[in-house]
Amino acid sequence: VHDIMKMEVLLPQLQSEHAPFHGYAARDTIGDHDLALAYVMEHFPRLLPSFHGLGKEEQASVHFTQCNLQFNHGWFVQAEAPPGAIFTHFRNVLIRDCKGSMGPHDVALYFVHWLTDLAG
């Protein structure tokens, strides 16, 4: 599901009632594939049957791992940046955006997702 929005034909157009959304205005096509997936997960989960069929807790875990972190794995793996640059946004998402609702299993799932991305 993660890279499904890399197919431009599937990119959603932001509906007026959901605007603004992460810098996009009403009727904009959400061009960032991660934000496009986040938008569909948040507002049209029935369009993703495998996601929609999950329980609410599992949906929250998948949404978290697929859409929220903006974690730069290259910097992390290759030690190209100090810890603050790597982990500040990650920490803010966990504290501010998720309000403590995500646990170690959600973070672990995020890193498993990353490994599958590397595998191709």
Shape: globular
Largest sheet: none
The helix-strand sequence is: HHHHHH
Q: Low-confidence stretches at least 5 residues in length (pLDDT < 50)?
A: none
Distance between the termini: 13 Å
Strand content: under 5%
Tell me the number of helical segments per DSSP (H or I, 4 or more residues long): 6
Radius of gyration: 15 Å
Secondary-structure-based class equals mainly alpha
Helix content: 40-55%
Average pLDDT score: 88
The beta-strand count equals 0
Write up this protein.
With 120 residues, the chain is an all-alpha fold. Helices cover 54% and strands 0% of the residues. The protein has helices at 33-43, 49-52, 56-68, 73-78, 83-97, 104-119. Helix 1 packs antiparallel against helix 3.
Characteristics:
120 residues; mainly alpha; 6 helices; 0% strand
Compact description:
The chain is an all-alpha fold. The protein contains 6 helices and no strands.
List the helices and strands and how they pair.
Blueprint: H1 33-43, H2 49-52, H3 56-68, H4 73-78, H5 83-97, H6 104-119
Helix pairs in contact: 1-3, 3-6
